[in-house]
Design brief:
heterodimer, A: alpha/beta, Metallo-beta-lactamase, Chain A, 7-stranded mixed sheet, 7 helices, globular, B: alpha/beta, 14 strands, about 30% strand, binds zinc ion
Chain lengths: ~325, ~280
């Protein structure tokens, strides 16, 4: 850990990556170093406040740690979901604090379908999918709808939801606390080839002028929201040749992320939501290549791995 | 007949060094006859690894056929479905066979898994292959290519799971995963009938015997339950299956050693990627 002026420690946020993989968990010898669990990041304020970003399979190990830390005592947890695809919610039924009486788990998400959020999220534990319904666990679940552009204050954290470009909708979050800022931008496609709506895409569909305008607006709002962020965590699922084959899947490349970060004068970019097929050796190469590309344009680029901890410090 | 384990972990896929030898993927087992015809049981995350191995077969060219049996629709047994590549190749014919869960249907359950808020696939109709969902009643007999199958419902927490006795090439494999008998030490008559004389019994062994009391009612068996069925049914071999997500490789080794001490039936813990020639 670095400190500021000698003898003085700036208060700072800390983030820990519990799952960095996209789509589905990938155990095995190829993922030992970068990790096989899906999306989940813990954000801590200097005062001990805690936000959880996404509830993928990484949430299980985080829940075990939180339950250990609290000694089994009830707590209050904020879980901010980017969207409700399986790889971002699958960990919820395995979150140990959900089984501690008196615990409150406040879940924040974009309302993406006509169904109520509670039905959709509670629906992952219908009896045919999981033996214990979330509605009946000892903890109390609260569901909150978020709206892009509308700020929320959660304890010490100021949170700004940001609209993204992903099938059925997704939101990113900018989080300000302790004089520093971190943004979580997953999952999103770039803003050029596809405008994701509420229907299934077999491939690219022609863009109307209105679609292009909408895309330009989403992109402009995103750049504005992450401007001068100290750290941006970004969906960089694909490498460029993979993106060319699957531009309609709703994910970006490190190039897309880096271009946005340069424009938004971001200090540090974290590559995240790695494709399940990307082996540790490939990820080493990715980490090396994009660190160099970032350096050339003045952005520090690091590649997330399971267990990685980062201090988020404000600009000097 | 050859049995290959692609996913052996119960409940939750585990990655990391402590799980490399037995593997962290959730249930998926492939049976192959001597002349190369296949049957798959369950589509946990192990199905993504199975899919890679199938790319060199007709299923990788869009000219393949594959029957899949589902024991039940708990997530650890279907979470690989949206990522099973043969579904995305036009021309493949894939049939999924299972029992309707209480109060809903097998097809509605899988549709719900792929519903647009949960999955970018949006629904079964968007899979490129020809996919048929074929529900059967517990107790029904199925004939899928060369595989002759007997089925039975078994108690599993808040639902029932389906157990299978599968015959092909004159050999018998019995699959009893995600089961919890009222008394694990007293072999369940239906389970024994299904496993009678089996060349290989694959059985739920999620809990070490001495931890079972803490986990009673969770829908899974202690190791002794599989041994009791294998003994009563005169099975030739026993594979411990559906390993606890918390069991490291070393712990599973210890589990096998203590289980083998209880019986003369040769037993082993199913390991991802390994196969058994029957
Ligand atoms: Zn995702
Ligand atoms: Zn299971
Ligand atoms: Zn189950």
């Amino acid at each position: 850990m670095s400190s500021g002026a000698p003898g003085y420690n700036f208060p700072r946020m800390q983030i820990t990556f519990w799952g960095v993989r996209g789509s589905y968990p990938v155990p095995g010898p190829q993922t030992v170093r970068y990790g096989g669990q899906t999306s989940c990041v813990e954000v801590r304020s200097s005062g001990g406040g805690c936000l959880i970003l996404d509830a993928g399979t990484g949430l299980r190990a985080l829940g075990q740690k939180l339950a250990r830390e609290s000694g089994g005592a009830a707590g209050r947890y904020h879980v901010l979901l980017s969207h409700v695809h399986w790889d971002h919610i699958q960990g919820l039924p395995f979150f140990e604090p959900a089984y501690i009486p008196g615990t409150t788990i406040a879940v924040y998400a974009l309302l993406t379908a006509a169904d109520e959020l509670q039905q959709v999220i509670g629906g992952i534990t219908r009896h045919e999918f999981f033996p214990v319904p979330l509605d009946s666990v000892p903890a109390h679940f609260q569901y909150h709808e978020v709206e892009p552009g509308v700020r929320m204050t959660l304890g010490e954290f100021l949170v700004l939801p940001i609209a993204l470009n992903h099938p059925f909708g997704a939101v990113g979050y900018r989080i300000d606390c302790d004089g520093a800022s971190v943004a979580y931008v997953a999952d999103t496609a770039p803003f050029t080839d596809v405008l994701h709506k509420q229907h299934f895409l077999r491939g690219l569909e022609p863009l109307s002028d209105a679609d292009r305008e909408t895309l330009a607006q989403i992109r402009a709002d995103l750049v504005k929201a992450i401007t001068r962020c100290d750290t941006v965590i970004y969906d960089t699922h694909f490498l460029p040749d993979e993106y060319k084959r699957f531009p309609h899947y709703g994910h970006s490349t490190p190039e897309h992320a880096l271009a946005l970060c340069v424009e938004a004068k971001v200090r540090r970019l974290v590559l995240y939501h790695h494709a399940p097929g990307h082996s540790d050796d490939l990820m080493d190469q990715v980490a090396k290549d994009y660190a160099a590309q970032g350096e050339a344009v003045g952005v520090e680029v690091i590649t997330s791995f399971e267990g990685m901890e980062l201090d988020i410090e404000g600009a000097p | 007949m050859k049995v290959r384990f692609w996913g052996v972990r119960g409940s939750f896929a585990m990655s990391g060094r402590e799980f490399l030898r037995y593997g962290g993927n959730t249930p998926c087992v492939e049976l192959q006859t001597d002349d190369g015809q296949r049957l798959v049981i369950d589509l946990g995350t192990g199905a993504t690894e199975l899919a890679k191995s199938l790319m060199g077969t007709a299923l990788g060219k869009g000219t393949g056929e594959l029957p899949i049996l589902l024991t039940h629709t708990h997530l650890d047994h279907i979470q690989g479905l949206p990522f099973f590549t043969p579904f995305f190749l036009e021309g493949n014919h894939i049939s999924i066979h299972g029992v309707d869960p209480d109060g809903t249907s097998l097809e509605a359950t899988l549709q719900n898994q792929l519903a647009p808020h949960y999955s970018p696939l949006g629904g079964l109709e968007n899979l490129s292959a020809h996919v048929s969902i074929e529900a059967f009643q517990p107790g029904d007999r199925l004939a899928l290519g060369p595989f002759k199958i007997r089925t039975a419902a078994m108690p599993h927490a808040t639902m029932r799971t389906t157990a299978f006795r599968i015959e092909a090439d004159g050999k018998v494999v019995t699959f009893l995963s995600d089961v919890e008998y009222p008394d694990p030490e007293a072999p369940d008559p239906q389970a024994v009938a299904l496993a009678m004389g089996a060349d290989l019994l694959i059985h739920d062994a999620m809990h070490p015997d001495d931890e079972y009391d803490l986990r009673r009612g969770w829908g899974h068996s202690p190791v002794c339950a599989g041994i009791a069925v294998a003994t009563a049914a005169l099975c030739k071999r026993l594979a411990l299956f559906h390993h606890s997500p918390d069991a490291t490789d070393d712990q599973i080794d210890a589990l096998v050693a203590s289980a083998q001490a209880q019986t003369s039936i040769p037993l082993f813990a199913a390991a991802e990627g390994s196969y058994v020639e029957i």
